[in-house]
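Hey, quick one: can you model this chain's 3D structure?
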Amino acid sequence: MTTKPDSPTTPTQLTAPTPHLISTPEPHDDRTFEMRFTSTPRGARLARRLTAVRLDAWGIPYDAAPHDEIVLIVAELTANAVRHGHVSGRDFHLRVHAPADGRTVRVEVTDTRAERIPRRPAVPGPAGTEETGRGLLLVSRLAARWDWHPRPDGPGKTVWAEYLLPGRTACGDRARD
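Sure thing. Here's the predicted structure for all 177 residues.
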């Protein structure tokens, strides 16, 4: 025989901890967010939004320049994966990694189109009227470094960018003012 709860509106508490629902990394731990998204503008937009939420949870707050610049890098790389790396029925993969040293954030976007290789951006002409083609130029200006490599586990490529967080030197010490 089963018993009914005292009230249907009485909240119940979980009896066992649920670590998969809790995302509170220790400050000294590496932090990684990775997920597959549909290779559509909607997938790129969702990747950008989820990255923004994750960066805030990692202590890189909204409305801070590093937050906005990393999210912009994610937006450009995911938009390129959708526009230039799209293969029908295939997703793109996003990985955002912040090592424990707190100096950098690395963004990696993997698509499944191997024949479309990213080119080093040229400086736009003096007219500056082009409406496209400036995404990787923007990434190259925001990131400390960026590049691409063939996807190791199948067809495609991974384009990555490393963002150097301000206030840190290459040795990990606080920069002097």
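One thing worth noting: The radius of gyration is 20 Å.
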